[in-house]
Amino acid sequence: MYSTPVSNRLHIGIFGRRNVGKSSLINAITGQSLAIVSEIPGTTTDPVYKTMEILPIGPCMLIDTAGIDDEGVLGKERVEKTQGVLRKTDVGLIVVEPGMKIGNFENELVKIFKEKKLPYLFVINKCDIGDDTDILEEIEKLPAKFIGVSSKTLFGIEELKKEIMEIAPADWSPVPLVKDIIKAGDTIILVCPIDSAMPQGRLILPQVQVLRDVLDANAVAYVTKETALPCVMENLKKAPRLVITDSQVFETVKDMIPEDIPLTSFSVIFARHKGDLAAYIKGVEAVETLADGDEILIAEACTHHVQPEDIGRSKIPTWLLNRTGKDLVFDVTAGGEFKKDLSRYKMIITCGACMVNRREMMHRVNAAEKAGVPITNYGILIAHLSGILDRVVAPFNFEL
To answer: Does pTM top 0.85 for this prediction?
Structure first.
């Protein structure tokens, strides 16, 4: 369970006013004292993330948020972070308590969940210490699903877990990486170049996840650097079913692999796995219309130590400047940050998104679409610049 990447877990956001018992609820669900509990309103300042497993859904991420009615400057920052959690939430729990009234805070959350088509559930906490008749009547008027619990006595907690399973969206999990396009016994070559940007002593997460997906399909995996790829090809008695490479070495690898052997990259795989492959392919066409002064947003989904050979901050800008011959302006965001106002950009280029869930990536894709800004990802862009885009999307039965 603990080896499951955070980005591949069902994200359950817990929302509500200050001191309704959100942190206590997380502790009750997990059976551990993980979140700070205090009678002082506003104890939770930043969203707190806790990984666990709720069977039969599997690995999940519980997100304890700051009270949405926080006041003052610091309170405003907390609320903004809480709103950021909504971008990655798959299931929402709105926590209330007996004696309170449904107000603007709860109504706004319901509105957001409905707009985003996210399943949600009212959780009436502290049922052991108050009469929940009034709050029940208000929730029923919305109307909305609800369940009564007590984080102190654990009343209703198991029922709550079952209800989460019931309302979890069927499509919350990303599409497969590659196991739906390969079969048992297939030979798959993974080309993993080693440069200064690679972490010491290990492969990067997308490579590890794809390798595991290949093994889960009972296929045979060969892992090599691009420099040893010709040797691997020569030693194989039968042509590989698929070659998967790092996008950065497309120019090198494409000439080593005969055209009749399917070729793609880790980033292109993640374009389909986490984002919208069709939107990325359409968005990459914007490269050919860029002009002097155009601003391009490079959107990284993680934070990392920037190396001289950094793909997003060095290589891609250089390749685009060389390709277009235009004086382009590049802006970079990293981690959970994503620009609210995208109107000034002519193009958005996102990474493979191995560190965020599909809900967050689709938020970015939808935000770009709403702003009318073309969006693509690293692998699709590099394939386009290398003139092999049609080839690297063909394994997914996608024709240009």
So the answer is: no
Domain boundary among 269, 298, 319: 269
pLDDT in tens, 325-354: 999 999 999 887 889 899 999 999 999 888
Closest CA to 356 of 70, 89, 55: 89
Q: At what angle do helices 378-385 and 316-324 cross, to 10 degrees?
A: 40
Please count the helices (runs of H) and the strands (runs of E) in the chain: 14, 14
Contact yes or no for 65/50 (Cβ under 8 A): no
So what's the pLDDT on residue 206? Answer: 92
Residue 192 lies in a domain: yes
Q: Which residue, chain included where needed, has tokens 């039969």?
A: 56
The number of domains in the chain is 3
The domain that holds 333 is classified in CATH as 3.40.50.11410
Phi, psi of 237 (to 5 degrees): -80, -25
Q: Is residue 397 part of a domain?
A: no
CA dihedral sign of residues 66, 68, 69, 72: positive
Question: Is a pLDDT exceeding 70 seen at residue 312?
Answer: yes
156 and 37 assigned to the same domain: yes
Question: Do 37 and 124 fall within a single domain?
Answer: yes
Assess whether 303 and 206 both reside in one domain.
no
Q: Which amino acid is present at 200?
A: Q
**Quick check: is 394 in a domain?**
no
Distance CA 308, CA 239 (A): 36
Residue 6 — pLDDT band, cuts 50, 70, 90? confident
Sign, Cα dihedral of 239, 244, 245, 250:
positive
Residue 160's identity, in one-letter code, is L
User: Do the domain assignments include residue 395?
Assistant: no
Q: Quick one: 313 and 379 in the same domain?
A: yes
Region of 117 on the Ramachandran plot (φ > 0 left; ψ -120 to 50 alpha; else beta):
left
Give the span between the Cα atoms of 94 and 5, in whole angstroms. 26
What's the pLDDT at 301? 84
Assess whether 115 and 253 both reside in one domain.
no
Which domain covers residue 344, as residue numbers? 280-385
User: 11-33 in b/e burial notation, b at 16+ Cβ within 10 A?
Assistant: bbbbbbbbbbbbbbbbbbbbeee
Q: How far apart are CA 387 and CA 397, in angstroms?
A: 18
